[in-house]
Amino acid sequence: MPRIESESFIFDPRPHFPLLISVKRYWSPGFESTDEDAITLVLMHATGSHNESWEPVLEELYSVNGTASSISKYSFKIREAWAIECPNHGSAAALNEEALRSGYQSVFPWADYARAVHLVLTGFGKGIDVDFRSRRLVAVGHSMGAVAAILARTYQPSISWSAAILIEPLILAHEVNREYELPFFNLATQRTDIWPSREEAGNQFRDTLLKDWDPRIIDLYLKYSLREAPTAGKATGVALKCTKSLEAATWRDTTGRIEALGHLSAFCNDVPTHAVFGSISDFLPAKNRDLLVKQGAAGNFKTVTEAVQTNPQAIAESMWIALIHPSSSYAKAKL
Question: Which of 239, 257, 254, 253 is nearest to 106 (CA)?
C-alpha cells in the first residue's frame, strides 16, 4: 500500500465568514506530480464524519492507480488531495466551539459547508498559501459533501471543477426530503456522544454503530472524532467533537439538499460529473437514485457506479473509473 503523508492547516476566513476551517493536505511520496495536467482532489465528507475518513480511500486510490496504470488505456496524475472539514464537524468543531454557540445551535446550513469550501479554494482568508485557481481541481463529495461541491460553485468568483465525483449524494426532492428528514434527525439526537473511556467508545462502535465498516475507518473515527474531557459538562471520559446537538443542527437544515437538486442539471452540463451510489441502501430508496439520474442530472452523469459504502477499496475503484473516463481532460490515452 502506498505511503500517504499529511499536513494540517487552520484556515481563517474572518471577517468574510465567522468560523475557522480545518483543512488537511495529503500526498504520496513517489506518486505526486507537479505537471500541469496533474489533478488536485478536493475531498468533502459526509454528515457526522471528518477529514481523516478519506485516508483509507486515498490509500486505495493510489494503489489502484499505481497497479492499473501499466495496463489501462488511460492514466492520470495526482498532485495532491485536500480535505476540507465542515466547520461544525471534527477538529473544526472543537476550534469553533464558542463561535458555534452564536447562531448555529439550532440549524447549521449545508450551504455554510459549501461557503467554507469556496473560501479556502478562492483564498479569502489566511493560513494556506496555495493558488488553487491555477490547479486542475476535482471535487469528491460524500453525501453532504456532494451537496457542498455543487453549492460551492454558486458563489463568486466561481470555482472551476475539472470533474466531480458525487458519492451517495444526499440530494433530495422536496417530497423525499420530507419523508427522510425525521429518521436522519432522530438518529443524530438519540445517539450516544459521551463515553467513560476511549476503549468503551471503541467497543460500542465495533459492536453496533460501525460494525460493518473497514477497521481503518473505525480506528480513524476513534482517533479524530473524539476529544478528551473535560468537555460537555463531564470531568472525565471522551466525547464526540461533533456532538449530537451539532449533528442534529446539521440535519435540521432542509434547504441545502433541495437547493442542490435545483442546480444539479446545470452543474452536470458544465462539469463532467460522476455518481457513485451505495450498493447497500441503508437510508434512501431507489426512487431517489432514479430521480437524481433521470431528472435531476437530466441523464448527464458521465458514469454511474455502485460501491459498498463501508469498503474504501470499492469507493476508490469507482473513483478510478470516473477519473479515467474520456470526458476528463487530464486523463491521457497511452500511445
Answer: 253
What is the dotted CATH code of the domain comprising 5-175+253-333? Answer: 3.40.50.1820
Is pTM beyond 0.90? Reply is yes
Burial of residue 205 (CB within 10 Å: 0-12, 13-18, 19+) is buried
CA separation for the pair 75, 206 (Å, rounded):
37
* The C-alpha cell that represents 236 in the structure block: 472525565
Closest CA to 42 of 129, 133, 127, 112: 133
Question: Vertex 247, ends 91 and 236: CA angle to 5°?
Answer: 60
DSSP assignment of 197-243 equals -HHHHHHHIIIIITTTS-HHHHHHHHHHSEEESSBTTBSSSEEESS-
Q: For 90-128, how does the pLDDT look when each residue is reduced to its tens digit (9 = 90+)? A: 999 999 999 999 989 899 999 999 999 999 999 999 999
> How much is the CA Rg of the chain, to the nearest whole Å?
19
Among 55, 164, 43, which Cα is nearest to 113's?
Answer: 43
Q: Is 45 helix (H, G, I), strand (E, B) or coil?
A: coil
Could you tell me whether strands 226-228 and 238-240 are parallel, antiparallel, or unpaired per DSSP bridges?
antiparallel
Q: Cα separation of 50 and 225, whole Å?
A: 7
Q: Assess contact for 7 and 24: CB atoms under 8 A.
A: yes
